[in-house]
Design a protein that fits this description.
161 residues, alpha+beta, 60s Ribosomal Protein L30, Chain: A, 5-stranded mixed sheet, two-stranded antiparallel ribbon
């Protein structure tokens, strides 16, 4: 049986550290702390990559770009997602839609939603209306409270191209 629609789930989590650029969703947000990671730490694009790779039945981001590879040090997550998306397209899939939830008490997400939607859509050869981005507060609870980090969950729907 061949399915014409596939769903994938992506998740990523990064600490926020003072003095690092706050890059989320492929754009830089004005904030005094940014995600720490082997690459630029863009947890949004990392979760998007895992969601679309998972929907296509392909290896995950960490397998394709391990954090033990010195070539990936400081990598631009837009380039990582573009590479992943190329694999998804080669496997015969196109974007249906994405739903992105960004949980943090760090940078405010709402003022940047439109720019993130446009950035992500462009990377996935789609339209902004195919990408939804929501910011959620942690209400002072858990290890990420007080702006200590950012957690991102993404659901992707792909359709056969």
């Amino acid at each position: 049986m061949t399915l014409d629609l596939r769903i994938g789930l992506g998740f990523d989590l990064h600490r926020l550290a003072p003095g690092r650029p706050c890059i989320l969703g492929g754009i830089e947000l004005p904030h005094d702390a940014g995600p720490v990671g082997h690459s630029d730490g863009d947890a949004v694009l990392h979760a998007v990559a895992d969601a679309v790779l998972g929907a296509a039945g392909l290896d995950d981001l960490g397998t394709l770009f391990p954090d033990t590879d010195p070539n990936g040090e400081g990598a631009d997550s837009r380039a990582l997602l573009a590479s992943c998306w190329g694999r998804v397209r080669e496997a015969g899939w196109a974007l249906g839609n994405l739903d992105v939830v960004i949980a943090t008490e760090g940078p405010r997400i709402a003022p940047h939603r439109a720019a993130m939607r446009a950035s992500i859509a462009a990377l996935l050869e789609g339209q902004p209306e195919q990408v939804n981005v929501k910011g959620k507060s942690l209400e002072g609870m858990g290890a990420l409270a007080g702006g200590a980090g950012v957690a991102v969950q993404v659901v992707a729907l792909l359709r056969r191209a």
